[in-house]
Amino acid sequence: MLIIVDKKIPEEARINLQKYGELVLLETKGITEESISGHPDNFFLSSQKELIVATNLPQAYKELLREKKVSFKEGSFNVEEKYPEAAHYNAVVTDNYFIHRADISDPEIIESTKHLQQIHVSQGFTRCSLLPLRENNFITSDKGIYETLVKRGMQVLLVSPVNIILPGHAYGLFGGTCGIYDNTVFFLGSLAHHCDGEKIKIFLKNLGYNIIELYDGPLFDGGSILFIS
Prior knowledge:
Layout: E1 2-6, H1 11-17, E2 22-26, H2 40-43, E3 44-46, E4 51-53, H3 59-67, E5 73-74, E6 92-93, E7 97-100, H4 107-112, E8 117-120, H5 126-129, E9 130-133, E10 137-140, H6 143-151, E11 155-158, E12 178-181, E13 184-187, H7 197-206, E14 210-213, E15 226-228
Parallel strand pairs: 1-2, 4-5, 7-8, 10-11, 13-14
Antiparallel strand pairs: 1-15, 3-4, 6-7, 9-10, 12-13
């Protein structure tokens, strides 16, 4: 299994994460803002149907995917330096829904998800803000996303972005601190350091998830953890 993660995540988290698969440390230069330049959710959109990658994802990573026999499709848009053009691929896809800021979504993603219900949100960094869980449950640190999904009858836990580390910013976004493989949610940090940590644990455990905290420190926004089996 490949695990794609920002090269800038804390060393202890990196050491622990590599126990679960082959680590791919994502790093780009001169493409987008430095603080998010290694975020997987800016360059990859993964769904049960397919993997879509940004056109300007560095060639070395595309070659690695081919070498590992990972099927993928290139999008139409480049990831650019500034928001919102930095967030063309930063969407959430579930079994039933495509959730993103619709006016910036890459056309290949729109085509790939046209069979799903489309939910427009104003936050273009959607995946970085939102963790999708089973049975239309979600956790988010974005109030606008929370309100949009709750109006549709979904179960959503709203948590604070405070104490989430994103170097160069006052705080990070919750979805970027974690990733899911099978029945386990992996966190770049410990929920004990988050003001809503206990609520998050209860919410996840009630849904039947296991939790692995990759280091004992504040949650780190690395643009999510992407598992490719």
